[in-house]
Amino acid sequence: MIHDSAKANDIIQKEAIVSGVINAVINGIIGWFMFQSQATVPMTVDTISAHEKTVFSSGVMTAFMLSLILGAIAFFNFGKKAKNLQLAPVELLDRPFFFFGLRTVLFYSLFAFGTAALVALFWQKFLGTILVTPLIAAIILGLIAGVAAWFINAAVMKAILRPE
Fold first, then answer.
1. What residue ranges are annotated as transmembrane (predicted)?
2. For residue 131, what are the β-bridge partners?
3. Could you read off the pLDDT of 105-164 as tens digits, one per residue?
4. How do residues 65-120 score in pLDDT, each as one tens digit?
5. Of 21, 82, 135, 164, which one is least surrounded by beta carbons within 10 A?
6. Helix (H) or strand (E) holding 72
7. CA pair distance 3, 85, nearest whole angstrom
8. Beta partners for 42?
């Protein structure tokens, strides 16, 4: 059995990018339908208890929920593919979802959530409340989702191939 890390990395990057692009488009469209009735959409607002829909309030939760869902999907799909292509020793690929996979997905999902929340926090701190058009809001939401999808896929797939 040959374990080619360059081949594995190429497969991971390709699959992560495809997932990122698909999710950017889908969530951008969803964002358009969500924001289209508003004249302008704030990127962030200056209070955590605001009930106003903002680009980042939607983006942070989108990044987190998308990471949970896509991380679990990536764990099962990539595990099968890695076995078929013999990308790693069988003992690495046979680790169970409970608790190795669940722990991995939760870790990287929380990382995505925290990163998106920190970007929103720093945005508000240094740039304040900036209003954008619904189209720009949808594009930014799509970009957040695309980056989250790319990240969670790449992170989970690499974790599957890495010894603990």
1. 16-35, 55-76, 97-123, 129-152
2. 42
3. 999 999 999 999 999 999 999 999 999 999 999 999 999 999 999 999 999 999 999 997
4. 999 999 999 999 999 999 999 888 889 999 999 999 999 999 999 999 999 999 99
5. 164
6. helix 55-85
7. 9
8. 131
